[in-house]
Amino acid sequence: MSERDGVTRREFVAAAGSAAALSLAPGVARAAGAKRRYAIVGTGVRGVGMWGRPLVSKYGDVLEFVGLCDVNPLRVEAAKKQIGAACPTFTSLDAMLAQAKPDLLMVTTVDATHESCIVQALDRGVDVLTEKPMVIDEKQCQAVLDAEKRSGRAIGVTFNYRYAPKHQKIKELLMSGAIGRITSVDFSWYLDTTHGADYFRRWHRLRAKSGSLWVHKSTHHFDLVNWWLDADPVEVSAFGSLQRYGKNGAQRADNCRPCPHKSQCKYHWDITKSPNLVALYVDCEKADGYLRDGCVFKEDVDIPDTMNAVVKYSTGATMSYSLNAFMPIEGYHLAFNGTEGRLEVRDYERQPWPAPETEMAVIKNFGERQTIDIPKAEGGHGGGDDVLRDLVFRGLKL
Length: 398
Known about the structure:
Elements: H1 9-24, E1 36-41, H2 45-49, H3 53-58, E2 63-69, H4 73-83, E3 89-90, H5 93-99, E4 104-107, H6 114-123, E5 127-130, H7 138-151, E6 155-157, H8 165-175, E7 182-192, H9 195-199, H10 207-210, H11 213-216, H12 218-229, E8 233-241, H13 275-280, H14 285-288, E9 306-313, E10 318-327, E11 330-338, E12 341-350, E13 358-364, E14 369-371, H15 384-393
Parallel strand pairs: 1-2, 1-4, 2-3, 4-5, 5-6, 7-10
Antiparallel strand pairs: 7-11, 8-9, 9-10, 11-12, 12-13, 13-14
Helix pairs in contact: 6-7, 8-12
């Protein structure tokens, strides 16, 4: 990071980390030497892989698992084995809160149920961390805010994309004034026929459960832009349509395994190739009927797969945003236009040709193009997952 007003990279990261820690979980601080009593509600892949197993293996000195909860009794037991936790399991959140007595609850349930879990925990005096999105609509948002106020407890939403080193680098460049005052942003996100299609197999395909990809997925991107610009959105125009999945398919079935069209369908997915997914979902179907390998062309799909928005921010900057969920590439193209130049980013998680994972450049007005070195990172969400967990449970150590 280039210095500006005496701010170095180290000072920037320290300040950003402190601010993020406060905004994520102001009540996570613990007495010296005490472990937090930690529980999870919702034991699907996200609960197990992000907020379960890594915490057992790396944070046992600061956390004690006291409970796991899921409405599916088979899944919660399967998750317990995959997480490696030695704690009771529950199918009722109320029972877990009463009997296990956690002081910190992680919510990783279906998006539409976040609000009820959060409010229930806050009203019992339990601090809450929740996967994004916090809620799926404005009524649920108000209910959570009201519960937070009357309970005096803390709630944090675990946005992880901010903490990827490449995204921190973008923030540093913008703060340094490398392209002057930001006037507009071009942001296109691409979900490929692997990842994008998967949202249409799962419960996410139903607006009543996910709020649509506007809420479940794009909230990641809007959070990034709000942070990068240090601004609030003040006006939004948007529209979306269903162009590829759902009713657009010529053939369909309930799910992939018994589908008579599997040999012809390019979107066929064989869940049985993943022992972990079989244990968490296939072996648990008889308890609740949930099919993890649902057909992407089911006619009940009611969320868009093609989305566009124009956003105006409190600084006067604007953003043109799009998301497409059936592309040959996975990643994004991003550009910040400023009074002194342009910052361009191309990021590929998957693509059908050889290419660097991330390319970043600053292009000066009346000047030259400077390629930016990208910090190396490993782990989920561009390296952001590990940083976020350290930030929440230990405080970011520089």
